[in-house]
Amino acid sequence: MDVFRERSRGGGGWSCLWRLAVLLLSASSLPAATALLEGLYCGTEVCYDVLGVSREASKAEIARAYRQLARRYHPDRYRPEGPGDEESAHTKFLLIATAYETLKDEETRRDYDYMLDHPEEYYQHYYAYYRRRLAPKVDVRIVILVTICAISAIQYVSWCSSYNKAINYLVTVPKYRIQATEIAKQQGLLSRTKEKGKNRRSKEEIREQEEEVIRDIIKNKIDIKGGYQKPRLTDILLCQMVLFPYYLSRYVAWYVSWVYRFTVCREEYGEEEKLYLIRKNMKMSEAQFDGLEENAKQTFLEKQLWIKENFEVKTLLLVLTPY
Fold first, then answer.
1. Are 271 and 205 in contact (CB under 8 A)?
2. For 206, phi and psi rounded to 5 degrees?
3. Rounded mean pLDDT for each run of 10 residues along the chain, 323 residues in total
4. Which of 76, 138, 278, 284 could disulfide-pair with 288, CB 3.0 to 4.6 Å?
5. Which residue spans within the chain are E strands per DSSP?
6. Contacts 24+ apart (CB under 8 A), 54-63
7. What is the largest CA-CA distance in the chain?
8. What is the CATH number of domain 35-134?
9. Where are the domains of the chain?
């Protein structure tokens, strides 16, 4: 009985060793199985096997194998033999197309080969796969260019609309209306609206035509500065970006000339330079400063506001004081 028990124990030991060996063999084969992840590339199929090519196959060989299989399983050409053949052929065709899309691109093929060689890094494989699939297919440079063009178009249309509204307002301002009327009389534009005979018009038509003449003169022949300036294509974002090197070079040349003339050579400021310094002290844009009355600018010059010591907070009230 004791001998029998010893033999049983020995048999149990061999059984444990056998089971351990089976587990080790299974573990050694596990990476090859996990290399093929469901939902990635060709799923549990090897893309090379789907196309019937080796891993060393060239792009030409891959393309040739794809064309042959595509002609065979394409839904427009495939003739099913049984009731379920059509659906299986469609699935096969999609798998063939997926395999070709995976292997025809060098970067995608490199990621796929890395997944086959390093099956344990499945998190990285998921990340690389979905990062490439979700990445934008359009060139980012084209997207940026289209965006800039769209912004520029909106800018120009918006400025034109604001400009037309400003002209409609200036037509009602006595100062500009009187100037436009004088110019129209000097050029004989208003007399044309009162022609007699067959071309005689009603008072309403004459008034509308006179308003149009005055509007056209204010728009094209009177120097309007400040926020009422006519929109220019060079002011939109696209042109500003294209012309940026030119503007930068001009600014650098102007700055070097300024330093040389007024810092090194100690030249006296001219009227243009004085007005520039006054505008800089007031922290106003060029358009805002140009919109001020000329007598206001003369007052600034008389008070020598280009000198920083003379510029005080009370001088800001001059901007709001009508002249």
1. no
2. -65, -45
3. 42 49 41 59 88 92 91 74 68 89 90 87 79 70 90 91 83 81 78 54 76 80 63 87 92 93 90 88 78 81 81 54 48
4. 284
5. none
6. 55/113, 55/116, 57/103, 59/104, 62/100, 62/103, 62/104, 63/100, 63/104
7. 145
8. 1.10.287.110
9. 1-33, 35-134, 141-237, 259-320
